[in-house]
Amino acid sequence: MRPCIAALDVGTTSVKACVFTPEMELISCRVQEYALDARGGRVEARPETYLAAARDAMRAALAQGKDIVSINFSSALSA
Known about the structure:
- By secondary structure, the chain is an alpha+beta fold.
- It has one helix and six strands, in the order βββββαβ.
- It has one helix at 47-61; strands at 3-10, 14-20, 26-33, 37-39, 42-44, 67-75.
- Strands 3-2-1-6 form a four-stranded mixed sheet, covered by helices on one side. Strands 4-5 form a two-stranded antiparallel sheet.
- The longest helix has 15 residues, at 47-61.
- The chain is elongated and about 50 Å long.
- The N and C termini lie far apart (40 Å).
- The model has no long low-confidence stretch (mean pLDDT 86).
């Protein structure tokens, strides 16, 4: 099994999970969308929503069975 890199990007309306070779060739990528709760002039999402989306997207991206040697995470969420 060839070593691979997993990347997880948590965005405003979806999470993207991708798997790359060490040479950065894309092997697989999955997008899991989620809804935000907008009320009272605010937009919110529950932490469980992000966690479930990240889990499901990464599980789908890794479905072929990869030897992950590194995991990268990015997010532009603000508190």
